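User:
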Amino acid sequence: MQTFNGSFLPSVVVGNGGIELSGSGMTRMLSVPTRSALNIFNKIAIRETNLATDALGLYSFLKVGTDKKARVASVKPGQHLLRARTNGCAWSPSGKVRLNTDVFDTCPVEYMGEECPDAFWGDCLEGIFGTVNNNDVRNLQANAETQTFLQLLLDAVYTGLGNSFSALYNFGNSTLITNSDTNGLYLNNGTAPEDWANYKAQQMDSGTCAGIISQLDGLKSQGVPQFALSIASSDISATGDYTGDIQDLIAQLEKNAKPVLKSMIKNGYRTGTRYVRPILLLTEALFRALEDFLISTGANAGVSWDYQLMREDPKMSPMPGVLKYKGMYVVRWDEVSTFDSITGVESHRATIVAPGGFGMAYDVDSIPLSQFDGFGLVVTQQLAAPFLGKMYMHTTFRWGAAIVDSDYIVSASTILNASTRAVINP
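Assistant: Predicted structure:
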């Protein structure tokens, strides 16, 4: 679920200098008492889903070992263990309990940024800088007001880092990016060439690690049965709406699932004292189609009716972007919409995955807490010559994405050229 970074709250005055934070429309405003009554507008930014909150248990968080690899182990019970009783002392064991261990690579990435306070001098922000010692004119930690401004600045950096990690984790080394680059599809949505170059560098030149959705596409291209299902392009309208039977599509997913996942979908499974079921991920058009179906069925929609119309349910907190269908939580796959808006493709995806089915490896302690806390970002401001206040920002960490066990995932998709409506094969 995407959220917004910013504030619609009433004005708040902080510090002794009369600095004012206020919200107006789709902007957050920082007012400082300079001669020119300067107003700084911080546009409210979209934050991608905070993967680390993992409210529905979709992800397994994996530590990176000293060999820079992550490992996933799974235990499968023995099957067909019984035999006819033997005579005498004959010993003939049968069946095995299987321990499967998968190893996957992680990739190092880093962020290097710098900010020079030149833009804050003179008639701009100098009025709130260095109120005691004029040598502090470039010091972003000189007083309460400048510290508030620094927090505002770093918050924007944190948002950018969190969104960048989301893009890598989902679509790192996606063949669809190569297709968009080769055919100029990104121009369909007005993505600027400079922005595209930066996006491509992040997604395709940050190591060999593939994002989780990139891996789903790879398994489909390999013909792995539970990933090979396609959504009929004839069921997609010219405006991108899904016009097919959404119930039938979900039923096809269930039918195509491996027996163990099929049983989980039907019956759930016990974890502790409660039963849980797999999670259904739907891209925007499919999610809307399910919403329309649930609304049209009225009272039979149960908890989903409350989600759609009331945004609340007596059993749990409100969760925008989440429905419930046959006991499964249905999550709108917002990350795919973001990808489409950049690349110029139109993705339609439906995936059922057991909780914990998507593995996320990392070696930064902040990731389990929040991907919007800076990933261990170190910020240094050099006040002495020759730096004269330049601020340096840096962090580096390893990441990786893994399908924990392909038996516990089933997926269907179709990708279109958003302009020509032609089908694209990832």
